[in-house]
Amino acid sequence: AVVDESDLSWKIRQQATMCVAAFITFKKSMLKETYPKSTKRQRYCDVLASFLEKRLGERDDTVRIKVLNTVKLMVKESALFNGGSNVSKAKGSRPPLVRQKSWDFPNADGVSDKVLKQFKTANLQIKCALFDLLQQLCITLQIRPGMFPFAAAIEPILDGVKSSDLELQIHALSFLETLASVSQDSKHFEANIAQVVEAVGSAAKLASKDRIKLHALKASGALSLCVDAKDEKSAGGLFAAVFGCMKLRDIDDEVKRAALAAVA
Fold first, then answer.
1. Which residue stretches of 27-149 are H helix?
2. What is the pTM of this model?
3. 181 CB burial (10 A radius; 0-12, 13-18, 19+)
4. Are the beta carbons of 195 and 158 closer than 8 angstroms?
């Protein structure tokens, strides 16, 4: 591809996206108000969500990451999270449960589908940003059962967990932990549970980095909630991976705690 060095339009798009992110962050109280220039009496949140969805196909990677992060911010602002004790930010805690919606993120299921389709052509950095956005969509859409495409998310997770890139592995495992914690339903994983368990087990047992083991163990604990009670092979695979980490001597204490939590 030929790059036109005189084309600075990407900087304008980047700054525009940053302005939208700043508005969402500092003027969140206005998001539910009517947008003055809207002929259909749309709210600010509707107009901004529509704008961001159209920008998901951004051609410049630098701008694209800004767009993905801003969509993530927008999705997060669309729901109110439970402030109870089960929403601890401590390491190892489950994703926060949504208490109620502040406003509906327009076409949330369509956005999820668009994001999932981008994995095939995305670079490593973009894939990490895609996982972050999907994680937020998954958490937020708990208030709208059936809206998140659980089955379609398995393929990019498997590719990410098997990747040789450390950061991509971590993002994929972190998303899997969230997905399983939110789902807690064997039906969402039944077609791919063997592959998922094998990939997570390999990451827990074979990874040389404690960070990978930590996230693999957290994912194993959450995934155990999605294994059918009659599926002894998958349950055994998870237990073998977790128990194998517990027997290691030269291992970080945080990893050991994650293994104990997974067994529990």
1. 44-54, 61-77, 108-117, 124-140
2. 0.84
3. buried
4. yes
